[in-house]
Every structure is written in C-alpha cells, then in structure tokens.
Q: What sequence folds into this?
C-alpha cells in the first residue's frame, strides 16, 4: 500500500532518460550496471530497466545513489531536472490557485486573469515581507478558503468603518478640548475596540458586558477621563445601532461587486486623519488667498512702475525685495500694525524717491486689504 500523496515528487520518464544517457556514456549494459551496483539478484536487471523507463515512480535514495556511483556520475548531472520541481510553489499554494481558478473558470478571461494576478501578487508580497523579518513568525500560506474569507471580510469591514469612523469623528469634534491632538490616534483605537466587542459573538449578554467593562477599564488606565470613556462608548454604540437599523450589519458583498473592484475594498479615512484634514483646510485656504493677494500686489506695483517708466532692473529689484518684506509683515500683523509702520519708516528714506515709495506702500496696503477681504480670515494656530 502506497503512502505517497498525489502531489509528491514522481520519478518520471525525463529523469529515467537522463539516467540511461549516463549509463550509455559509461558504455555499460543493464547487466553490467547491476553488477557494479552489487545487485546480483535476478530482478535487479528488470528493476534498472523499469527505472530508466520511468515506471518506478518513487525510487529510494539508495537506489539512485548507487546508480550514479556505478556510472561515475553525481547528483549534479540531475540538478537541472530536480530544480525544475523544487522551484515550484508549495503544494498548498498550488492547490489554492487551482481551486480559485476552478471557481473563476466561468468568468470572462480578462476578469479571471486580473483576479489571479492580484492574488499571486498579494501572496508574493506576504512571503517577501516574512523573509525580510526573520525574527518574526512567518505567516502561513493561505488556502483557497482562507483567501476568499479574507477578501470578503475586507469589504464587510470597509462597509462598517464608513459609519464607525464618522461616529468617531463626531466624538473627536465634541471632545476636542478633552482629548489632546497627540492622543487622538490612541483614543480612536480604544473606540474601535469597543465597537469590536459590540459586533463580536458572545454566548450571553453577560459575557459581552464583561468584555465592555474590561475595554472601558483599559481605556481609563490609558489616561482618559470618565467623560471621554463614556462619550467613546456612546459613539461605538451609536455606530452599532445605526448599522443594525440600516441592515448593513448583516450585509455581505456580492461576487459581482468583488470582481468589479478587483478584490480591493474601498479605503475609509480614519477619524483622526479626518480631523487633521478639517483643521488644515482653513490654513490651506488662507495660504492660497495670501498667494493670490501677493500676485495682485506685484502686478499693481509693476503696472505703476511701468507707467512711470521706471523699468530699470536695479530700481525694480529694490522695490520687489521691499514688497516681499512688507508682505511677510502684513501676513502676520496686518497693514495697520506697528511692525508695518516701522518697516515703512525705515525703508522709505533709502529709496530713490520718498514720495513715490510711500505711494507704493499705500498702493500695496490697499491692494492687499481689498483682496484679503474676499478671502477667509487668518485661522488660529493649530
């Protein structure tokens, strides 16, 4: 009774033909080969013939070693054929690819090839990452069932996170003063753990309440107040209730949706990242308005200089450098600030015409105020 599986190494006709070539190169007959191998039984001659035909599918290591020794050869003479087998992916991965291919066989060719290519790319990236970190435990190779399970759950989690991250963002806005900016990521992590407890299956409500109490206690031990913990639990509870009411808690992606997205679930912006974007938006708008005002001031000053035919490079160079300094001051303090007045008073006497220089400063202030009046006010420092 054979104990070999259908996926183990098989000594096929190619290897048998290579052994026959090694024997003929030495000028040996099958009987002479059997004598050199010290195999004097009647069946040794037939066994060598069957080996060369590829009929001995699982020969012993001793038999191959004795054969090569009698022919004056070594395992290097079989290395190219053996390498073709050892370079193949592991058996579970081959089986998984075959199973996925069978499932997708009914699909059109482009979608089937794209899905298989993406799956192999993900598996190769996991193996490369594991090889680059020898100190960590290497992840096991996914089976076809695990692979399908992972893809489906990425879509389910993306569907849930759309609501969870929105509720956590509302929590961060309401507790902006109680939660420092540096602690947002940690507190949102605790909120996601609370939501995970609500969605996890427990045998009884008592076990669920104990798990929630443990998660709340760990949040308090992390340095957050009771008010923050209560608001965080309320956000997780609201997200769970909304998903349950809308039916999204039991939602599962269809095969058409997964294939249309090529197995890649949509990304959901995290709550702490959304807060950073919201806080930086006024700064970006204000900086954009400053850039527009700066361009309009330069255009107005250039037009006045050209009208008075002060187009000499040396004169324009000094005026443009002065305008840049004034714009830096006015962007921070305004056109009526003492810093503005001090800069004008210190620079005007050094210009070629004091009256004209004061007119340029006044023109710049009027142009800047007119354009900044149309733009958002300067945001507070983050």
A:
């Amino acid at each position: 009774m054979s104990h070999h599986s259908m996926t183990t190494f098989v000594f096929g006709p190619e290897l048998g033909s290579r052994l026959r070539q090694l024997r003929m190169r030495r000028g040996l007959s099958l009987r002479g080969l059997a004598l050199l191998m010290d195999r004097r039984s009647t069946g040794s001659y037939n066994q060598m013939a069957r080996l060369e035909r590829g009929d001995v599918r699982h020969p012993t290591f001793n038999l191959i070693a004795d054969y090569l020794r009698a022919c004056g050869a070594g395992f290097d003479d079989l290395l190219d054929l053996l390498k073709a087998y050892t370079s193949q992916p592991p058996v579970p991965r081959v089986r998984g690819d075959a199973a996925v291919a069978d499932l997708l066989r009914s699909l059109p060719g482009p979608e089937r090839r794209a899905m298989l290519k993406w799956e192999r790319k993900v598996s190769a990236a996991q193996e490369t990452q594991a090889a680059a970190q020898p100190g960590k435990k290497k992840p096991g190779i996914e089976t076809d069932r695990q692979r399908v399970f992972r893809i489906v759950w990425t879509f389910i989690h993306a569907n849930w996170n759309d609501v969870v991250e929105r509720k956590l963002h509302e929590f961060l806005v309401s507790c902006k003063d109680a939660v420092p900016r540096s602690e947002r990521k940690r507190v949102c992590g605790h909120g996601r753990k609370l939501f995970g407890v609500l969605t996890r299956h427990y045998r009884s409500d008592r076990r669920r309440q104990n798990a929630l109490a443990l998660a709340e206690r760990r949040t308090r031990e992390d340095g957050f107040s009771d008010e923050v913990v209560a608001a965080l639990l309320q956000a997780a509870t609201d997200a769970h209730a909304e998903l349950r009411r809308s039916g999204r808690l039991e939602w599962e992606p269809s095969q058409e949706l997964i294939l249309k997205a090529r197995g890649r679930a949509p990304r959901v912006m995290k709550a702490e990242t959304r807060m950073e974007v919201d806080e930086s938006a006024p700064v970006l708008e204000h900086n954009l308005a400053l850039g527009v005002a700066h361009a309009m001031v330069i255009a107005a000053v250039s037009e006045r200089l050209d009208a008075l035919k002060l187009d000499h490079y040396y004169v324009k160079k000094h005026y443009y450098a002065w305008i840049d300094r004034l714009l830096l001051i006015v962007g921070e303090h305004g056109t009526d600030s003492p810093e503005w007045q001090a800069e004008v008073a210190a620079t005007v006497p050094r210009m070629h015409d004091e009256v004209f220089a004061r007119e340029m400063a006044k023109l710049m202030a009027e142009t800047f105020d007119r354009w900044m009046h149309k733009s958002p006010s300067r945001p507070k420092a983050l």
Q: What stands out?
A: Residues 273-372 form one domain.
